[in-house]
Design goal:
single chain, elongated, mainly alpha
């Protein structure tokens, strides 16, 4: 493998790992702890975090999909794995962008009740993104 190929794999793995780690931490540590400590007021805090959370995910998603395309062009990864990695990243990126562009404005317009009303959609989108990123990360090591 060339130095460029190695660098592309590192970028791909780091971005996917950071993205997955951020989603797991927020979902299973950050948000639940906020609700445990603040109770009903936690929705406002989590709603304030969401724009940065989705922006972080979008940046990592665009970086990951770019790295995946370049690894495909350089024939760094297994061709079969590459066929699945790019769509998985795009699925996660689409879920993130949808949540950022469509779900957040609905939450903000709904006010204090916004978090409760749109929480289920947020959880589903986050779960889809999490599974897709985890799948892409696993496939990048085949």
């Amino acid at each position: 493998m060339t130095l460029l190929g190695t660098a592309l794999l590192v970028v791909l793995d780091v971005t996917l790992g950071m993205w997955l780690g951020g989603m797991v931490f927020f979902s299973f540590v950050g948000a639940p702890t906020t609700f445990d400590v603040l109770g009903d007021g936690a929705g406002q805090v989590v709603n304030a975090i969401f724009p940065k959370y989705y922006e972080f995910g979008s940046i990592l998603g665009f970086t990951a999909v770019s790295a995946a395309i370049l690894t495909w062009n350089q024939e760094v990864l297994d061709p079969t794995a590459t066929l699945f990695i790019q769509p998985l990243i795009l699925i996660a990126l689409a879920a993130t962008i949808y949540a950022q562009a469509r779900l957040l404005p609905k939450m903000e317009a709904a006010g204090d009740d916004g978090f409760a009303r749109y929480h289920k959609q947020s959880v589903v989108l986050n779960g889809v993104a999490m599974l897709a990123v985890a799948g892409a990360l696993v496939l990048s090591h085949i």
